[in-house]
Amino acid sequence: MPLDHRRLRGPEESQPPTLWAATAAEDDEEEGAGAAPRDPCALRPLFARAGLLSQAQGSAYVELGSGTKVLCAAWGPREAAEPGPGRLLCEFRRAPFAGRGARGRPGAAAEREAEREAAAALREALEPAVRLGRYPRARLAVSALLLQDGGSALAAAVSAAALALADAGVEMYDLAVGCALSRPPAPAASWMLQPAEPEERRAAARLTLALLPALNQVSAVLGGGRGGPPEDWAQALRLGLDGCHRQYPVLRQSLLRAAQRRDAAAAATTAASATSA
Amino acid sequence: MAPPARYCVPGERLCSTEEATAGSGTYTRHGFIFSSLAGCLERKKEDNEVEVYKSFRPSDIVLAKVISLGDAQSNYLLSTAENELGVVVARSEAGVQMVPISWCEMQCPRTHTKEFRKVARVQPQFLQT
Question: Is residue A141 helix, strand or coil?
């Protein structure tokens, strides 16, 4: 057979990668079968960076320690035909490679429905934070892309979307910080902050909170399930608000750094144009 | 040289309404001024009042920024509240194009009278030489 020079040929002998991935699956089973329970108030490490996309006016990337990665871009304001105060349009998309294991039929109605619900939840969480009254007859667009789902995806998306809007220069009352909780199905189990993906899948009740920390106002409470008595739900809310407050400094720092980087870049370009002109 | 710039994020409390008045990019609540934008904090010490007759006259050519698309009456809101915005070309009462001499004055080259305008400091990349 004539050699096809356009193709890269792999090695003669190859083994399937699942041979080495089998150990990860076993770890999951052990965790579920009652390993030492993790501290319910422990927050996973959070990484946030704003101002990374050049194509969008504002952008942010948030990564949680459990592996959740969300990339968010924001545009605005653009002139819209309909009268009245400004509108916030949110979009939430899951990348095809975001979840573990096989997907159902790609493009199925259930997936699109879930994405639409998540987009509506994002809008509910962000609308109280944005000063829409300052942008009459304008449209602000926010688009969140979930690159990897490691649990607490909606909460991470809320934080990323708020950062992206602030990075785009949209006037806001405050940053919205998202935090997720879940409760395993065991009878006397307690609520846990920021569940990982297997914990979230097996949970009996899930909750996502969005808080405006500086104004101390809750903008959205989403979720539900078979929980315990109402005091448990109140306890869960308090735990979630505490989690949001603890995440706020990291997000604030990332926004300050992005503003400083942007100013430094603007100063460098004006200096360069002044010397060349 | 200049003091270190203070950066702020939306929702950060800047000061009370007694110390300063809220400018652009801020809002007031409970007697305090909060920031609305993420960026460098600028404290302007000059008088907040602006006399329009000292800033512009009819048939001046002005560089302004659109800050809002306006309300139901569909009026655009323009702002000249930056160093780079303001009057670019203006004619004096004698009908001659004036020369800027400071950020708030322009002089007619024929009659040498000075008139008040809010002069724009146009960035060099926009000037054609």
Answer: strand
Question: In angstroms, what separates the C-alpha of A270 from chain B's closest C-alpha?
Answer: 9
- Which residues pair with residue A130 across a beta bridge? A172
* Euclidean distance between CA atoms A149 and A273, whole angstroms: 44
Strand, helix or coil for residue A270: helix
**In this complex, do A252 and B9 lie within 8 Å of one another by their Cβ atoms?**
yes
Residue in the structure block whose two tokens are 């493009």: A107
For A180-234, what is each residue's pLDDT tens digit? 999 888 777 788 899 888 888 888 899 999 999 988 999 999 988 886 788 888 8
Residue A277 has pLDDT above 80, yes or no: no
ipTM of the complex: 0.71
A169/B37 Cβ within 8 A: yes
C-alpha–C-alpha distance, residues A164 and A261, integer Å = 15
Partners of A273 on chain B (C-beta within 8 Å) are 123-125
Residues 6 or more apart whose Cβ sits within 8 Å of residue A141: A74, A75, A76, A78, A89, A91
Question: Nearest residue on chain A to B24, judged by CA atoms?
Answer: A171
* Cβ–Cβ < 8 Å for A177, A254: no
Q: Do B36 and A131 touch (CB under 8 A)?
A: yes
Measured in angstroms, the CA of A56 and the nearest CA of chain B are apart by 16
